């Protein structure tokens, strides 16, 4: 499972969808459900700036209490601050096997309120954001032809993609893009 996470994180990193801003703040993360459980492995907090991740950059999220704003994790790093958002997808859709949280300004602006969009008052990493994501995940799954993408209104540039596996989670993002550009003007390749 970790080699698959490392591979897809690298693909997203090289596309500029996971990384670090010039001010040193990292963005984006990736997770994979441990099959047959509610647990998942997620890239660690502050790993956006690391060019190539290893096993030492991931954490196992063992339990999440969204309403209590708590999570329990173990591993060499602290789980991402967006772990509750990932947990919300896994809880809302038992078939979900992977979640990617990317940042892409052009896609975010283009898709805001055109694709399922979280409550603008819900800030990233909060129970309110997790609840909004859970509700939207359920709605998306109910409309099976809709892409599995959530735009995070209260988290500028933040977009969630999810699926049964990591390829599926990235595929809707890849297929949905039409005019996005990185800051350099190049289209992200995923």
What is the overall silhouette? globular
Distance between the termini: 19 Å
**Annotated CATH topology:** L-fuculose-1-phosphate Aldolase
Task: Quote the beta fraction.
Answer: 15-25%
The CATH superfamily appears as Class II aldolase/adducin N-terminal domain
Secondary-structure-based class equals alpha+beta
Number of strands: 9
The level of helicity is 25-40%
Give start-end ranges of low-pLDDT stretches. 178-186
Quick recap:
With 190 residues, the protein is of the alpha+beta class. The chain is built from five helices and nine strands, in the order H-E-E-E-E-E-E-H-E-H-H-E-E-H. The radius of gyration is 15 Å and the shape is globular.
Search tags:
L-fuculose-1-phosphate Aldolase, 5 helices, alpha+beta, seven-stranded antiparallel sheet, two-stranded antiparallel ribbon
């Amino acid at each position: 499972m970790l080699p698959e996470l490392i591979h897809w994180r690298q693909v997203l990193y090289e596309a500029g969808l996971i990384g670090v801003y010039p001010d040193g703040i990292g963005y984006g993360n990736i997770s994979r459900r441990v099959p047959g459980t509610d647990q998942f492995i997620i890239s660690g907090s502050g790993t956006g700036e690391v060019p190539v991740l290893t096993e030492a950059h991931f954490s196992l999220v063992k339990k999440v209490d969204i309403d209590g704003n708590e999570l329990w994790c173990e591993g060499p790093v602290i789980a991402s601050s967006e772990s509750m958002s990932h947990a919300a997808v896994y809880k809302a859709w038992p078939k979900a096997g992977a979640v990617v949280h990317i940042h892409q300004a052009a896609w975010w602006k283009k898709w805001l309120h055109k694709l399922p969009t979280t409550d603008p008052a819900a800030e990233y990493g909060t129970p309110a954001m997790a609840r909004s994501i859970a509700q939207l995940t359920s709605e998306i799954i109910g409309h099976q032809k809709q892409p599995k993408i959530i735009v995070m209104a209260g988290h500028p540039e933040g977009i969630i993609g999810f699926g049964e596996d990591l390829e599926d989670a990235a595929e809707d993002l890849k297929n949905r893009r039409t005019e996005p550009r990185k800051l350099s003007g190049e289209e992200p390749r995923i």
